[in-house]
Design brief:
Bound molecules: zinc ion
Distance between the termini: 62 Å
Number of domains: 1
Structural class: alpha+beta
Mean pLDDT: 92
Strand order of the largest sheet: 1-5-4-3-2
Number of helices: 2
Largest sheet: 5 strands, antiparallel
Helix content: 25-40%
Length: about 120
């Protein structure tokens, strides 16, 4: 079977478990692999940080409740959160230290993960 370097695609000679032609190809391959991993993580972190920024902004208004539309308008992304906590009949979703819980239809109450333990 024709074996090729996982990095540059050159034909491989020698040991059958060899995956790269040399150390340079090996480290280049892992560098690129880790770079892709880092990019995936940082894309998601960017969304989470943006969500947290919107929650911070909300907190600074001293309004206890807000509406889903208002958060969406600001670019809040409901699919992303760092963790959640089960309340009696609802779930509180957090982006790091700040979170929200649904209070009726499309209405949310802001909560902090540090202060409030339900
Ligand atoms: Zn190579």
């Amino acid at each position: 079977m024709d074996r090729r370097c996982n990095c540059c695609g050159e034909a491989l000679l020698g040991r059958s478990d060899k995956r790269f032609c040399n150390d340079a190809c090996r480290s280049q391959h892992y560098h690129l692999h880790h770079q892709k991993e880092r990019e995936k993580i940082s894309d998601i972190n960017r969304i989470l940080r943006n969500n947290r920024r919107i929650l911070l902004e909300w907190r600074s208004t001293n309004e206890e409740l807000t509406y889903k539309d208002k958060l969406l308008q600001k670019g809040f992304c409901f699919e992303y959160y760092t963790h959640f906590r089960e309340l009696d009949d609802r779930k509180a979703y957090f982006c790091y230290d700040l979170g929200y819980v649904e209070e009726g239809r499309a209405r949310y109450k802001l909560i902090s993960d540090q202060e409030e333990r339900f």
